[in-house]
Design brief:
mainly beta, six-stranded antiparallel beta sheet
Length: about 120
């Protein structure tokens, strides 16, 4: 796959996920998605707004602490909408706690759901 993205340490937590770009960050380095796979939701989950789950395998840059890697990955894969009301129907994502697979390789499970 080879998609690269920049990872950041979030320094302030004044805003929710929809507006987190307004917080302050420190650059950590370049991460790379090695592979991605989709886990589809069943019919019952779909009726509750679930849109499935995506599982990413990511390579982290060298010289970063375990805590910074976990926080950077959760921040990169968690997104909320900016609507001021519920049931807008926008897709949102939530990254579960990343798991270390090898020295620099991490697995991130990302739940996708609609704001319904």
């Amino acid at each position: 796959m080879g998609f690269r993205f920049d990872g950041y340490r979030r320094l302030t937590f004044q805003f929710n996920d929809g507006w987190k770009g307004a917080d302050e960050y420190q650059y950590l380095g370049e991460f790379m998605i090695l592979k991605s796979r989709l886990r589809h939701s069943n019919h019952q989950d779909s009726s509750n707004g679930e849109a499935g789950e995506r599982i990413y395998t990511v390579r982290a840059p060298r010289g970063i602490s375990r805590g910074d890697i976990i926080n950077a990955l959760r921040d990169a894969f968690t997104n909320g909408c900016r609507c001021e009301h519920d049931c807008c129907g926008h897709l949102q994502t939530y990254a579960y706690l990343p798991r270390r697979q090898k020295r620099r390789t991490w697995v991130v499970e990302v739940r996708c759901y609609y704001n319904v």
